[in-house]
Amino acid sequence: MNWPHPLVILLLLGTVSHLPVSFTYHMSVAFSRYEDRLDNDMRRLDQSMQHVLGTVFAYALSGSMFYMFINLVYNVYAIILLWDASTSNDGRRWVPVMISVCMYNAPMAWRQDYENFVIAFLSMGLGGMSFIPVLNKKLFSG
Fold this sequence. Notes:
Signal peptide: 1-18
Low-confidence stretches: none
Number of strands: 0
Keywords: Membrane, Signal, Transmembrane, Transmembrane helix
Strand content: under 5%
Helix content: over 70%
Shape: globular
Transmembrane segments: 56-82, 116-135
Radius of gyration: 16 Å
Largest sheet: none
Number of helices: 6
């Protein structure tokens, strides 16, 4: 049996490691377990895991330890900001996550893998639409 490339396995393991945290946060929000659905520790943990994934994915998609280190520095800084009380409920916590996403997807564009690069951003854009308050209320009664 031929196993997938180790970097593909790394992408899978990273995704699987984030899944329980993300599932718990989103199900808890769906069942109204938090007074504030955006400002709670479970959301901060979910977004912290997204930053951890940003570092893992940067390596998996680039194969470069140096590029992973650049992402690591940024993502550690972003995690620290996430847990800082002064950024609590400021409505901009998605910005560092989006920067991380752009950083880990950049190697696809760099190696001219434009098809996967565009598909990745379109899928994130489609999934992210549910987090736009106006669309959330109209489409999902959120």
